Amino acid sequence: MIESSGISRRRVLTVAAGAAGAITGMAAIVGASTPAQAAKAPQKAVKYQDTPKGEARCDNCALFEAPSSCKSVDGTISPEGWCMVYAKKPA
Fold it and tell me: What pTM value is reported for the model?
């Protein structure tokens, strides 16, 4: 005769499925945060322009990467340019 341990097969499968889902979810979160996999926005979507907007310009933006790229915007970026994701470098 087989003794019942009080844990059903359904409960074991439910816990296993939940654990697998949690691991998959964490892998997606960690993978999406790596710079190589992060998608950059198209210039048109952020209204990029080759001219500054007042004193706001790419070369004093925290996202600008000299000599001509951006952490958030795709394509070649002018140091004198500007877009909607502009974030002034901290003082």
Answer: 0.59
